[in-house]
Design brief:
With about 70 residues, this protein is mainly alpha-helical. The protein has one domain. It contains 2 helices and 2 strands; from the N terminus they run H-E-E-H. Strands 1-2 form a two-stranded antiparallel sheet. The longest helix has 27 residues. It is elongated, with a radius of gyration of 15 Å. The two termini are about 20 Å apart.
Length: about 70
């Protein structure tokens, strides 16, 4: 149970950090990278951030790998 608790605390801290950094990440273009799919119609917008998701996955994998060592 100790491992799960530590994981949840780290995950919560990462989510809080990302939430606090969102205004600055938006200015850097994170979330509107090439490869992200945006379909806009008259009254409908579909946004699927494929590239942003891959980048976030790689970054989180690196962070968790470093914490595990």
């Amino acid at each position: 149970m100790n491992g799960i608790g530590r994981f949840l605390i780290v995950l919560g801290a990462v989510l809080i950090l990302v939430g606090l950094l969102m205004p600055w990440l938006g200015k850097l273009g994170i979330g509107r990278l090439p490869g992200d799919i945006v379909i806009q119609r008259e009254n409908f917008t579909f946004y699927f951030p494929i590239t942003t998701s891959i980048l976030a996955s790689l970054l989180l994998s690196l962070i968790f790998w470093l914490l595990q060592r």
